[in-house]
Amino acid sequence: MSQAAQWIAPKHSGEENACTPIPRIATGIVVGLVAAKLLLHIFTSVRHYGYFRDELYYLDLARHLDWGYVDCAPLIAVYAKLALAMGGSLAALRIIPAIAGAGLVVITILLARELGGDRYAQLLAGLCILLAPAFLVMDSLLTMNAFEPLFWMSCLLVVARILRTGDSRLWLWFGVLAGFGLENKHSTLFFGFSVLVALLLTKHRREFSKPWIWIAAAITLAIFLPNLIWDIRRHFPTLEDLENVRREGKNVVLGPLAFAKEQLIDMHPALILVWLPGLVWFLGSRMWRVLGLTFVVFFAVMELSHGKNYYVFPMYPILFAAGAVCIEHWLSKRASWTRIAYAVVIVLATLPTLPLFTWMLPPERLLAYQNAIGFKPAKSEVHHESLLMQPIADQFGWPEMVRAVADIYNSLPPSERENTGILAGNYGEAGAINEFGPQYGLPRAWSRHQNHWYWGPPPHAYRNFIFLQFSLADVQDNCASFQAFPHFNRFGMEEENTPIYLCLGAKFDIQKVWWHYHHWN
């Protein structure tokens, strides 16, 4: 066992119920970092940008609450429903992930404390969550990604408490948290698998000889069961969606070195000074090795399965907590100024990247800043074409697109409007019409993309359609006549810069053809 591992391990680590006291929570540090996290997102997430494509979709999910959806677990619709209850504004939407991010700061500090970290370790661990680019982006948008690390790190906090105290009854709490984690995002299955393998690879495999971990598994299944039943009754649309993504080669596939490089960049190169010592310390500690192996197994599974680089992000807080504890112990034997210097280096190195990963700069200034420091964001999807990185580009163009559709729709005689439907190519366009359209008198949009397919077909067969993101060939084949209206937004995604078509005299009955195919990818 390493010197650091010996320092943090209980004196009677071989005893089943060995337990060591842990430091007090640094209340002032928690309050200060939580306030900084909330203020940072409140003052940057709504000033220059608009609704993110997926946020518009989630608002539609909130209007159709269910136990499952084609491409996501049900809790995201609950978050969006809460935003609608608060008025549905962009500010109401964005405060929810900001609160989740603040919760992650607290959980990471609690992890550092559970591992034996005192005030300095708690401060350093919280600072890493506050400043890491990956968490800045995730906590600026209402997606399930903002909540994923909150559930996972809460689970690992329970595991850490079990390892420290030997109280196996705490697995029941793990079961509850993992169940809600699955209802938040299905990738929690891979997280649970990683914990399982890590336990089997260490002396803690003896937990499987006790009843508590099995009861916890039953609790997780019970909480997840409504979503699972929804998927089974519909013949597993979620698996079909994932297979379509794989078959169509939608995502950029990274090799091992490129995958590791993106991790380094997205967590910020300076923060390797914290998380890498944490990983090494975990793997060298008999007591805490399960936590390090959980990260290693999960990282390996994501790389081998060609997962997106951000799939690993929720696992880093546990390494930040461990690294902060390790650094605190190492610097405790040196002059007091070294601890201040270490934290200052972390802060000064990460502050220049804040404008890149929060929405504090308008797009023109953001592009100029990127060019000035030589930063070029990586693509996560093969067909991503935009001046800006995708989380930002997908916040542009939606109100303008809806106004363009409204101009076309309202130019028709009233008798023709009643027989004109809006057919969107993807959930972003449909969500934008449904969010902004009512102020222009637009009817709801219909789409066969993702879960919108289940909400159709339209109530009657329209004679005319306004088509969004349809090819010219499809329009020519399906319309007696048509008009094309150019549409362009400089900062949005290139795929949205296609003409809007007014289809006059549709050659198909939308109610009859609706169930013939869907678009899940």
Description:
The protein has 521 residues and is mostly helical. It has two domains: 22-240 and 254-357, no CATH class; 398-516, no CATH class. It is 56% helix and 5% strand. A five-stranded mixed beta sheet has the order 2-1-3-5-4, with helices on both faces. Strand 1 (420-424), helix 23 (427-436) and strand 2 (445-447) form a beta-alpha-beta unit. Helix 5 (90-114) crosses helix 16 (316-331). Mean pLDDT is 92; it is low at 1-18.
Quick description:
This protein is mainly alpha-helical and 521 residues long. The chain has helices at residues 3-8, 27-42, 53-62, 75-85, 90-114, 119-131, 133-138, 148-165, 171-184, 188-200, 212-233, 237-248, 256-266, 272-283, 289-304, 316-331, 336-350, 354-357, 363-373, 390-393, 398-410, 414-417, 427-436, 472-478, 510-513, and strands at residues 420-424, 445-447, 464-468, 479-485, 500-506.
Percent of residues in β-strands: 5-15%
Average pLDDT level: 92
Which stretches are poorly predicted, pLDDT < 50 over at least 5 residues? Answer: 1-18
Number of domains: 2
User: What gyration radius follows from the Cα positions, in whole Å?
Assistant: 25 Å
Could you say which overall geometry the principal axes of the C-alpha atoms support?
globular
Widest sheet, order of strands: 2-1-3-5-4
* Largest sheet report: 5 strands, mixed
Q: Counting H and I runs of at least 4 residues, what is the number of helices? A: 25
- The percent range for helix content is 55-70%
Helix/strand order? HHHHHHHHHHHHHHHHHHHHHHEHEEHEEH
How many extended strands?
Answer: 5
Class derived from helix and strand content: mainly alpha
The CA-CA distance between the termini, in Å, is 48 Å
